[in-house]
Amino acid sequence: MDTDANPYLDVPAADTAATAVPTNRLRLTGGAALAKAIQVLHDGPLFGMAGFQFATYYEAIRTSGMRHWLINDERSAMFAADAWARVTNRPAVVDATLGPGATNLVSGLVESLNAGIPAVVLVGDAHRLHAGKNMTQEGRQVDILRPAVKELLRVEHVQRIPELVGRAFDLALRGRPGPVVIDVPEDVAHESWDFDPEEFDALARRGKPLKTRASAAQVATAVEAISAAQRPVLLVGGGVHLSVAYESLASFARSQKIPVAHTLSGKGAIACNDPLSLGVFGRYSRVANDLITDSDCLIVVGCKLGEIATRRYALLPKGVPVVQIDIDASEFGRTGVNGIALWSDAAEGLDDLAQACLPTPETLRARQGRIDGSHVLLSQWRASAAQRIDSEASPINVARLLRAVNEVLPEDGILIADGGFATHWSGLFFDTKKAARQFVANRGFASIGYGLPAALGAQLAAGSRRVI
Ligand SMILES: Cc1ncc(C[n+]2csc(CCOP(=O)(O)OP(=O)(O)O)c2C)c(N)n1
Q1: Is the pTM of this model over 0.85?
Q2: Number of domain units in the chain
Q3: Where a domain ends, among 382, 410, 426?
Q4: Does residue 451's CB lie within 6 angstroms of at least one atom of ligand 1?
Q5: How far apart are CA 277 and CA 294, in angstroms?
């Protein structure tokens, strides 16, 4: 039987071994094929916890030279991986065994899903010969995991492993990034197949992640609204980090003289000590909310306009034009703001606006006056917070603690915040000194318990840079 002619034929390995196999074929177990495909696409640590299903994968990793970090709780492995992906801006790779291994991932997966963090997550599943027969640790894990991820790919044929691993990386990075699960039954992970080595080599030649760019007509409508504005404010979120749009944001904001307010996830989109930075907006604003309330045009970039950022959807003034740049079309109108939608990657959208927005000198003067005014407001805010920032009280006031962090953390250092008030206070008082993702907080799902494993993952990504 010519198995190459019809790749959809499900031919047991024993039959295949009996037929003549081209000599260049590479005989691998499913687990070894997973490891080989991942090694082509991923240059970084692996996080996870073993189980029998993935014994073949672990054996292949052991001999591959890849570094795997066993973390005794899959939720923490996913949190560490999520932070690693934020700091490197590359997809993390995680593995878990079936049942509780898979279900322990859920909080971490939803964090990455909601925050747009890319990950490829291998999950073992029951042997298909016995599935449904009260197999140990068996549960309806595919049904449990599917709503927690961007996509779930189930491997039914060992020979499709290179293809599906490639597809998982594509989907994790394409458009708005997110986690993709590859669900692998035990028998698939343990079965052997004669792979064509070219299938693995081809993975290295995959294209760059696909991004979108708004139409010229939509850009023109946005430009009209922005050019007329005397009091515009940029509202930026984590999408600026995902798009690595730092230069585009700085150059647009500077040339147009538009101040920048950020969400907790968007912290670092512009350095906190940049003269254009208004700090965080929303529930824990310094001065940004005042300028938003009083603005005549809002430009929202890679920001979900969620509950905390909008003070439960009440912050944005009614009737003020809103231009919204987002790579995910489903975000437009989602929280009740129906503005001018630019369906675009953040950097592409900002570059398009920067080229086309031509405000008059009087408009630029008016905007500069407002920026100068914001510096006065920020000094007043600092004076009002001085008692907390300089407090000598014991136990230490959190504002005083963050003053110390601001003083000791080097310019390229990274601060990790746990869910809960740790994030809110550090979002308010921590100052990033350059534009980069150096404040990592789990705003996707805000689970407590993120901080410590995330710091471990971030440190693996950061090398010798300081992580607190
Ligand atoms: C998994 C999970 N359980 C419960 C909560 C609800 N919650 C939010 S903040 C918080 C308190 C956390 O206390 P602590 O770690 O001392 O930090 P604090 O926020 O008080 O600074 C809790 C329980 C949560 N965010 N995540």
Answers
A1: yes
A2: 3
A3: 382
A4: no
A5: 17
